[in-house]
Amino acid sequence: MGAMDLKKHLDRAEQALSRGQADFAIELCDQVLDFAPGDANAAGLLARALVSLKPKGGLLGKLGAGPSSLGARLSRMTKNPDGEARQLRRAFIKNPANFQKGAAWADALERAGYAGAALEAFGALAEADSDCAKRASALAAAQGEVDRALEYLEKALAANPRDTEAVRMRKNLAAEQALSTKRYDQAESAQDVAYDPDAFLRAARGQDAPAPEEPEQPEA
Fold first, then answer.
1. Of 58, 53, 57, 13, whose CA–CA distance to 32 is shortest?
2. Tens-digit pLDDT profile for residues 122-178
3. Does pTM surpass 0.90?
């Protein structure tokens, strides 16, 4: 399957999903990922199609996920990251209502070295699962997409406003974003640390500054 064929498959999958034919979109994306397991567009589209299915998962959900999960464990034991990701993808396809299986697949993609595909998969799951939203945020931030990372954290906080981890992540990202763009007023920092990057980040993140050293006492 060449690059043009991959694009045609994904175009057809996108059209199928827009027409409500999620099962067909999933089949096409699965074929692409068999050939190119790290294709970010295919991973994101597959995850979106699976999330769009009804809770019972349509016809695909009736197949059961046991054999695929077992295959994933065997692939991990034999240090075959691509095989593990493939088996976990199949497990998620067979049980799309189980977002933990989707997260396991996305995690396997990241460990296999497909950070872009992992980001798209976690990102598609972000609307349905706050933990996936936080993973998507961390991946987006690592890839320099700070605005996107903040958007995922907003999704996590919409699901659970008291999520302290998401609050801390958002504060850290906002501070780093403000520092990189010199929008100091957006990070709740004090004016007297605005031109000291380390102090600026500590203040913006709400971290305490290091305690001043005690002056040495003169000998009696």
1. 13
2. 999 998 899 999 999 999 999 999 999 999 999 999 999 999 999 999 999 888 877
3. no
